[in-house]
Specification:
Elements (H helix, E strand, L loop, with lengths): L9 E3 L6 E3 L1 E6 L6 E6 L3 E7 L5 E4 L7 E3 L5 E5 L21 E2 L24 E3 L6 E3 L3 E7 L2 E13 L5 E6 L7 E5 L9 E5 L4 E3 L10 E9 L3 E9 L4 E6 L27 E3 L4 E3 L3 E6 L5 E9 L6 E9 L10 E7 L8 E6 L3 E9 L4 E9 L2 E6 L8 E7 L8 E5 L2
Antiparallel strand pairs: 1-2, 3-25, 4-5, 4-18, 6-7, 6-16, 8-9, 8-12, 10-11, 11-13, 12-13, 13-14, 14-15, 16-17, 18-19, 20-23, 21-22, 23-24, 24-25, 26-27, 27-30, 28-29, 28-31, 31-32
Length: 417
């Protein structure tokens, strides 16, 4: 492990008139990692809130249908077999430990635990999409186990009743004996400008706990990582539209953005949790491991961890430095991109309003975040009608992202032949 002393690192531009300086910063997640930290690369810590005050999380994306669980808070979600939402009042939990457990993806914000059984369109996992009303109506029943530290678990039966065409969520839950019956509506407009709304089943309350999505780049957070099985970890996840690259076996001073700009990855766990190791007596950070983060504002930052104190304080120390790049390489040059028709039978096209003649690239990912196609096209200034190459894609849900524009939003595409 590297030992750091007081360090001042500068990168001088050839003219000698501009320099960037590496700075140290830190966040403290608290004892037991009881705080989630939202962080801006340019402005530092933006907001913090309890890691353990919520059980469920729902997207505010009008085109999304994603719902999530807080596994590090002891939430275990089971799909109830051989029944649907109509079996709510008569649910029998015999043999529930053998039922399918559902978990969030740790690679994308577009795939929550409730989405795991998504099938061919219009099956969204927990419900079915109606192409006339543009609502998703729930058809699945779930058992939620709420593990309590030092005490017995609580259980709730739960159904997502509906996601309305205006983006509101309606949920129904109760105790197993049908007492404590609650139907609650989570209004999208109450969380305007934020990625998610949150809900506590334990306290029967909605929670507004995250900052505006445009104000942060990464979050220091407890989440469930996937390996052979899912397990809780402490790490860093990127915000939506923030991308990163990992530079292995290189020192901070030597890491050059030009060598890694082609390795940029849209997975939210590029930084993740495996930048540290437990030695048996203490944590140490991995030597010669640097990250590049392309922030919400399009600026590039070099980032490296220097120390990690573990659960006693949750303190994480790191070094960061803005990487100077030419304005032309980070400016936005696409005014808008729209998709039509959507849903489609596989013949969708992009309508691109470009500021200038240029080459642009679009990536298509499937519902679990795997990149399945990249299409590079030439566009002229003004409106361009570009057919999408989707003939090899099966029915389902996909996301299209402009890889050449800073801050572009992922567009949801549904193929239903």
């Amino acid at each position: 492990m590297k030992k750091y002393s007081l360090l001042l690192v500068s990168i001088l531009i050839s003219s000698g008139t501009f320099a960037q300086t590496a700075v140290f910063d830190s966040v403290s997640m608290g004892s037991g990692y009881n705080q989630q930290i939202w962080y801006s690369m340019s402005n530092g810590e933006v907001h913090n809130d309890s890691s353990y005050n919520w059980d469920l999380m729902f997207t505010t994306n009008l085109m999304g249908s994603n719902a999530y669980t807080n596994a590090p808070n002891g939430v275990v979600l089971y799909q109830v077999p051989n029944t649907n939402i109509s079996g709510f009042s008569t649910l029998d939990t015999t043999g529930y430990t053998y039922w399918q457990q559902l978990n969030n993806s740790d690679q994308t914000w577009f795939w929550g635990a409730f989405d795991q059984n998504t099938g061919a369109f219009p099956d969204f996992g927990w419900g079915t999409y109606n192409m006339t009303s543009h609502e998703v109506t729930g058809d699945s029943l779930y058992l939620v186990q709420l593990n309590n530290m030092g005490g017995p678990s609580d259980f709730k039966k739960l159904a997502i009743v509906k996601k309305t065409s205006t983006g509101d969520w309606i949920i129904h839950y109760s105790n197993l004996d049908n007492t404590g019956d609650v139907v609650d509506t989570i209004l999208r407009n109450d969380y305007a400008g934020k990625n998610f709304s949150y809900y506590s089943l334990r306290n029967e309350t909605q929670i507004d706990r995250e900052p505006q999505t445009d104000n942060w780049d990464i979050t220091f957070v407890r989440y469930a990582a996937s390996a052979i099985s899912y397990y809780p970890v402490t790490g860093v996840l990127n915000n939506i539209d923030v991308v990163a690259a990992q530079a292995d076996n290189t020192f901070f001073n030597d890491a050059d953005w030009a060598n890694y700009s082609g390795s940029i990855d849209s997975s939210i766990n590029v930084i993740g949790y495996d930048w540290k190791n437990w030695t048996g007596s203490a944590y140490e950070v991995t030597d010669s491991l640097v990250y590049f983060v392309k922030a919400k504002d399009g600026n590039i930052w070099k980032f490296e961890f220097t120390s990690y104190e573990g659960s006693a304080s949750g303190k994480i120390v790191f070094m960061k430095e803005e990487v100077p790049v030419g304005i032309s390489s980070i400016e936005n040059s696409i005014n808008s991109v729209s998709l039509y028709p959507n849903p489609s039978s596989g013949n969708s096209s992009l309508l691109i309003d470009a500021q200038k003649t240029q080459t642009v690239s679009f990536g298509i990912t499937n519902s679990i975040g795997t990149l399945v196609n990249v299409q590079t096209v030439s566009v002229k200034e003004g409106l361009n009608f570009i057919p999408l190459e989707t003939s090899q894609l099966s029915n389902g849900i996909y996301f299209i992202k402009d890889l050449s524009q800073t801050g572009s939003q992922a567009m949801k595409m549904v193929i239903a032949r």
